[in-house]
């Protein structure tokens, strides 16, 4: 492999995705835009994910194995920290990129240097075609980008945020990671994935990026997103792990001085509403014998009062979650 970094790093964090990761990586390798690397970081899988990637003999693949499981956002951040390209393409291990995805997105970055993030439409594939929950998700989110109104090839990021706030961030209007590309400088400016947000960590990152950059849009599908029964989305919903996501999402936004002092009172109002809702929810659960959510609120109060010093999002230089021992990922031979 050449020592010179490629233009694009396609990051593929993986955990127990042996069934799908082959087609995901093959779709990355089949791009018409050729200056790329595929960074696959296996998060201590137990199902043969590593072996499946090893079968794909291509020098553009850089395959890493975590010594322990970092979790969804932790492994995304680890993958991003290992990327070398000036542009970062996200690819979930069970999704697919269409052959001209990189070519179409890179062209926007090249023509418009003010762009920090590009997203496209995507097709949606359901693992179980007649599953009522999957079909309902598709109906609700398939055209979520319409909250922005008419999109141009280049759009003001803050203007899009204004429209998103008007909808109270009801849906992920940009979409999943697989239909998004960002610049390395964007991630250096705004940080990587939020380690406190469980369900919408991708949306959290998109909103932060939009505050500081123009946004490119490709009005046709460049990828295919799979809704499957074992996805992180479904697990989080079933276990209610995401109950404080909205509050931590708003805290992350308001942690930037430019946003906090930049004339966005709507965000403070949304935070107050989220605090009240979280308190009611935690008290209700406590009365039913579950005090764990009061403990989570206690941690949040400590954060707000400055007792719990915690950075809410990662950086490209992180080797693991903030406050933890440096996480080593082993680069495996091709």
Gist?
40% of the residues lie in helices and 19% in strands. The protein has 13 helices and ten strands.
Structure write-up:
It is a single chain. By secondary structure, the chain is an alpha/beta fold. It folds into 2 domains: 8-240, Spore Coat Polysaccharide Biosynthesis Protein SpsA, Chain A (Alpha-Beta Complex), CATH 3.90.550; 245-304, no CATH class. The chain is built from 13 helices and 10 strands. Strands 1, 2, 3, 4, 5, 6, 7, 8, 9 and 10 form a 10-stranded mixed β-sheet that branches. The chain is globular and about 55 Å long.
Record keyword descriptors for this entry.
334 residues, alpha/beta, Spore Coat Polysaccharide Biosynthesis Protein SpsA, Chain A, 2 domains, ten-stranded mixed β-sheet, 13 helices, 40% helix, globular
